[in-house]
Amino acid sequence: MASTPSASGSPIPAYRNSVMANLRELLLRRETIGYLVSSNLRAGHRDKLLGNLWNLLDPLLFMAVYYVVFGIGFRQAGENPTEFVIYLCIGLLSFRFLDGVVTQSATCIRANRGIVGEMRFPKAVLPISVCLSRLYDFLWGLVVLGVVLAIIGHPITVWVVGLPVLIGIQLLLCMGLAFATAYIGAFFADTPNILGIATRLLFFSSPIFYFAKSEHGRHGIVPPEYLDLYSLNPLVGLFDGYRDVMLWGRMPAIDSISYLAVLSVAVFVFGFLMFSRGERDFAKYL
């Protein structure tokens, strides 16, 4: 591996210089990222009659469909249907944020192969813009959820101040996954198909429309002896955290949030390093 001397005379790996250079250049490309985010948002609703109103309608319609299927059909709503509406909405919104990031990031390099091959710029702005675009949709979904909470008269406690922390942790996790999937998708055209299967598996193995453990008067479907293994899924702790501060009105479990935060930072660092080291080869494979 090629190295360059540092100020102290010791060699520094070339890829480390490349990573630091990418970070510095990304900070200088804030306007480019902002433009790409707004462009992604406009493109998503360009041909739709209701335009940006779908940012509000989408989560409401998804929630209604899943409530009918699982809340009524599978009797998960129990004796407190309004509580289950909130439970379901939180899981759906958070999962759709992650799913949208992973799905779109897998194609963001190939979809922009023209500028990737012709222009010199930090390619990381592409997955970053995808992630921030889906964050925008997620925040609108939280606005919808806030309206739902107000309509049904659900009390908001002081623990809601933890919501920005949870959003920040999920953003780190999503951005790390965006870098990794964008990198893999640049080299393998089959990536979106494989990810479609993986995200579908993640959807059904996460507590979105069912209770994993018995609590709040509902029966959990995961056997107690497997709960620790099941909780290795980061979405379990993430959903629990959101529901603690917004639904149950209590502080999230410290051990669960600590695990989630450490994992999110690790995924972010790993994803960014992977993307930075492979960025120079994108043009050759597109």
Mean pLDDT: 82
Using only C-alpha atoms, the radius of gyration works out to: 21 Å
Oligomeric status of the shown chains?
A: single chain
Q: How are the strands of the largest sheet arranged?
A: 1-2
* Unreliable stretches: 1-15
The overall strand count is 2
Q: Count up the helices.
A: 12
Approximate helicity band: 55-70%
Gap from first CA to last CA: 25 Å
Shape label: globular
The number of domains: 1
Q: Please trace the helix and strand order, writing H or E for each element.
A: EEHHHHHHHHHHHH
Largest sheet: 2 strands, antiparallel
| Proportion of residues in β-strands | under 5%
Helix/strand class: mainly alpha
Notes on the structure:
With 286 residues, the chain is an all-alpha fold. The protein has one domain. The protein is 70% helix and 2% strand. The chain contains twelve helices and two strands; from the N terminus they run E-E-H-H-H-H-H-H-H-H-H-H-H-H. The protein has a two-stranded antiparallel ribbon. A hairpin with a 5-residue loop joins strand 1 (3-5) and strand 2. The two termini are 25 Å apart. Mean pLDDT is 82; it is low at 1-15.
What structural keywords apply?
286 residues; mainly alpha; two-stranded antiparallel sheet; disordered N terminus
Summarize the structure.
Helix content is 70%, strand content 2%. By secondary structure, the chain is mostly helical.
